[in-house]
C-alpha cells in the first residue's frame, strides 16, 4: 500500500487494527467454549481494539472491552439458542 492509499492512517493504527483482528480470530477458534463465551471474548477484543485505535484513555478502553464482551456474550448466546 502506498501512502496515498492509506490516507491519514498511521503505521501504529494499522498495526493495532491488525492485532485486534488477529486476536478476535484466535479467540473465536477456541474449542470447548460455548457460543456465548466465544462471542464475549471476541466482543471484548474488538471493543478494546477499537478504543485503542481511536486513542481513548485507559478507563474508556477498559469500559469498551467490558461493553463489547457483554454484547458479544448476549449475541453469542442468542445464536447458540
Task: Kindly describe this structure.
The protein has 81 residues and is mainly alpha-helical. It has a domain at 33-81. It is 79% helix and 0% strand. The chain is built from 4 helices and no strands. The protein has helices at residues 3-6, 11-28, 35-53, 58-80. Helix 2 (11-28) packs antiparallel against helix 3 and helix 3 packs antiparallel against helix 4 (58-80). The longest helix has 23 residues, at 58-80. The protein is globular. The termini are far apart.
Distance between the termini: 42 Å
**Low-confidence blocks of residues:** none
* Overall pLDDT level: 81
Percent helix: over 70%
Helix-strand topology string:
HHHH
Task: Tell me what portion of residues adopts beta-strand conformation.
Answer: under 5%
C-alpha Rg, in Å? 14 Å
Number of helices: 4
Largest sheet, described in full?
none
Secondary-structure-derived class: mainly alpha
- Beta strands, count: 0
The outline comes out as globular
TL;DR of this structure?
With 81 residues, this protein is mainly α. It is built from 4 helices and no strands.
What are its keywords?
79% helix, 81 residues, mainly alpha
Amino acid at each position: 500500500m502506498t501512502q496515498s492509499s492509506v490516507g491519514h492512517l498511521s503505521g501504529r493504527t494499522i498495526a493495532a487494527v491488525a492485532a485486534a483482528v488477529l486476536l478476535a480470530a484466535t479467540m473465536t477458534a477456541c474449542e470447548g467454549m460455548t457460543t456465548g463465551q466465544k462471542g464475549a471474548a471476541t466482543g471484548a477484543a474488538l471493543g478494546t481494539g477499537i478504543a485503542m485505535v481511536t486513542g481513548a484513555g485507559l478507563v474508556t478502553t477498559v469500559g469498551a472491552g467490558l461493553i463489547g464482551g457483554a454484547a458479544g456474550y448476549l449475541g453469542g448466546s442468542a445464536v447458540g439458542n
